[in-house]
Every structure is written in structure tokens, then in C-alpha cells.
Specification:
Elements (H helix, E strand, L loop, with lengths): L3 H4 L4 H15 L6 H9 L4 H23 L26
Helix pairs in contact: 2-3, 2-4
């Protein structure tokens, strides 16, 4: 999946989780109570919100460690594993 917005079409729950993960990844200081409420409104309990935060945070941590140590991926991996947008996403939108 190269664009979570189209992949999550039709699932308010998945869209809320992925929007939160994107904000937490790209602009962690911008996360606010409204982001948490959006996930609650989409049907996530606090435990699910905690898990979403843990998974996104751990993924970011591992990637930053690998990048910080110049870890090389295996030869048979197709790069890039994740295509980043040409420009930063508009994080003001829900």
C-alpha cells in the first residue's frame, strides 16, 4: 500500500488509526487531544489507542536506529519499502 488514504477508504476506524500514526511519525509534537478523540469516535477503546501509539512509536524507533547506524537492508528487498509523499502532508486535516 502506498497511500493509506485510499487503502482505508470505507473504514473510519482504520483511517483514524493511520492518520494518527502519520501525525505521530511526521510531527509528534503536533499530536493533540483531538487526534485521540477522533480514534475514540471511530470506535477505538483506550487500550486500542495505546496499542496504536505503541506500534507506531516502536516502528519509528527501530527505523531511526537502523538509519542512525546506516544499517543496509538485504539485497533482495525492494526499495523503497515505503514511498514518502513528495511534499509533507497537511496535518491540519482530520
Amino acid at each position: 500500500v502506498t497511500d493509506w488514504r485510499t487503502a482505508s477508504a470505507g473504514s473510519e476506524r482504520l483511517a483514524a488509526i493511520l492518520a494518527y500514526a502519520e501525525r505521530l511519525t511526521l510531527a509528534p509534537a503536533s499530536v493533540e487531544a483531538a487526534d485521540i478523540e477522533r480514534m475514540r469516535h471511530a470506535g477505538l477503546a483506550d487500550e486500542g489507542i495505546l496499542h496504536a501509539c505503541e506500534v507506531a512509536s516502536y516502528f519509528n524507533y527501530v527505523n531511526r536506529m537502523a538509519e542512525g547506524l546506516a544499517v543496509q537492508v538485504e539485497d533482495d528487498w525492494e526499495l523503497p519499502l515505503l514511498r514518502l509523499p513528495d511534499r509533507p502532508p497537511d496535518l491540519s486535516a482530520p
